[in-house]
Amino acid sequence: MFGKRHVLSMREFSRDEIDSVLDLAESLEPYARGGRCEALSGKILALLFFEPSTRTRLSFETAMMRLGGKTLSLGPAEGSAIAKGESLADTIRVIGAYADALVIRHPKEGSARLASQFSPVPVLNAGDGAGHHPTQTLLDLYTIRKESSLEDLRIALVGDLKYGRTVHSLAYALALYGADITLVSPPTLEMPASIKADLAGKGTMVREAHHLDSVIRDVDVLYVTRIQRERFPDPYEYSKVAKSYRIGPESLDGVRDGLIIMHPLPRVDEIAPEVDETRHALYFKQSFYGVPVRMALLKMLMEESR
Ligand code: NCD
């Protein structure tokens, strides 16, 4: 359905396209749990991770293997020609000729888009600095659709909204579903003005708050994020906001019955482990949903190029 296209940001997705990824993910979920599927047998996915990753890298790898395909991985930059000074553009041109699609995570904003300009095969952005993380958003939407509802959704995005790429991507997608969004962050870590302006331009209902107490009882989904320590130019600035939010069992008094708490993970200390045992905690299930959703994307992008 997608043909040869890149997955760089949620801004390039329509609601129909998102729904078709989520529908396909639904039908692939049994295979994500261990069934056998050979849809991508003979295909190769290259993984280029220039920043730490656990879930994104391993769920792409799992997704590819569950579809009968194979992966190759660049490994740390010190072990490749990048250590000799090779440019990203050259690396991409070369690996693009070995593989049928590329997944890239890189500390620089815009790097996936740059890669797409040199790649002969589809590029999937697995996080470009503080920019975007569209495949995370697709699994977030899948989780909301399955465990809550995308209709009349009231959601709070909590934490580091300035540097957090997951919330940047998610905000664009939520606008397509007409969600009512509350942005909760310390004053210095608010959602970038350009994204807020884009949301306003789409007629999205957006409120801002600095404290969680006033918000947590009014929402269906609480999407919590880590303060992105590695993006702070000054460690002192990080220390000032590091422990801004912590959701403990006591925070859940009076919340909606169906409230779900999501987190892209890794968490540091923004959600107490005691919350894991409550019916509201969805973050581990959410990370599993990365497999069927990435299977769906890979199938849509790579099957057509046979
Ligand atoms: C996120 C990321 O890398 O942006 N992690 C992930 O992909 N699940 C969130 C984070 O690192 O805080």
From TrEMBL:
Carbamoyl phosphate binds at R55, T56, R105, H133, Q136, L265, P266. Keywords: Pyrimidine biosynthesis, Transferase. GO terms for molecular function: amino acid binding; aspartate carbamoyltransferase activity. Pathway: Pyrimidine metabolism; UMP biosynthesis via de novo pathway; (S)-dihydroorotate from bicarbonate: step 2/3. It comes from the Archaea. Its EC number is 2.1.3.2. Residues 152-300 form the Aspartate/ornithine carbamoyltransferase Asp/Orn-binding domain. Catalyzes the condensation of carbamoyl phosphate and aspartate to form carbamoyl aspartate and inorganic phosphate, the committed step in the de novo pyrimidine nucleotide biosynthesis pathway. Heterooligomer of catalytic and regulatory chains. This is Aspartate carbamoyltransferase. It comes from Methanothrix harundinacea.
